[in-house]
Amino acid sequence: MTNADESPPLETQPRLAESPPDKLAPPLAEGFSVVLLELGANRDRVLQTVQKYRIGEVNRGIPRCPALLCCGKELHEAMFAQFELICTDTISVFLADAVVASSTPRQLEELLLDLRGSPEFEPVVIRLDKIPDDEAGRRFMQQFFGRNPSQPLHLSVTRKKARIMRHWAERIGGRVESEYALE
């Protein structure tokens, strides 16, 4: 039981506090860089998200990948940037600033190629159905598609996006299914 002035911890706080093994972005790092690896097809949505995080040069167009989007971010900021980017089908990673700064261009290129090959970014086919026709459902559709496509919907997305969509769909009473393992 909590006191009236204490707010319960958010469901995602424990997940964000964990330090997954074999990650190049441990939570104790000084700052984090977000690197774009592959851009989503809807360039307007991608540009809107990129402009939100890009340091300076806001009026420049969409960068060629791989591209350093921003640096010096706190862990939760880097994770949220990656979340917003994957919603636009843009694949990105975040790395400790020290890793980016201390790597040679060749080392960084090899690292980014290795990260791009992660199972997280493999395409999976999902079926989206039963998203409620209410405010929460409209926000869900806007977040993940930038519009409200008709349902049911079959499409290919990254495993990471599919997993996130399934989580949030369940929270609002919807359903996202895949024949592929999403965990």
List the helices and strands and how they pair.
Blueprint (H helix, E strand, L loop, with lengths): L12 H5 L14 E7 L4 H11 L13 E7 L1 H13 L3 E6 H6 L2 H12 L6 E7 L5 H11 L7 E6 H13 L3 E4 L5
Antiparallel strand pairs: 1-2, 1-3, 4-5, 4-6
Structure description:
With 183 residues, the chain is of the alpha+beta class. The protein is 39% helix and 20% strand. The protein is built from seven helices and six strands; from the N terminus they run αβαβαβααβαβαβ. Strands 2-1-3 form a three-stranded antiparallel sheet. Strands 5-4-6 form a three-stranded antiparallel sheet, covered by helices on one side. It starts with 12 loop residues before the first helix and ends in a 5-residue tail after the last strand. The N terminus is likely disordered.
Number of strands: 6
Biggest sheet, in brief?
Answer: 3 strands, antiparallel
Percentage beta strand: 15-25%
Low-confidence stretches: 1-21
In which order are the strands of the major sheet placed? 2-1-3
Please give the radius of gyration in angstroms: 18 Å
How far the N terminus sits from the C terminus, by CA atoms, comes to 32 Å
Order of helices and strands: HEHEHEHHEHEHE
H/I helix tally:
7
Question: What structural class do the secondary elements suggest?
Answer: alpha+beta
Overall pLDDT confidence? 82
- Helix content, binned percent: 25-40%
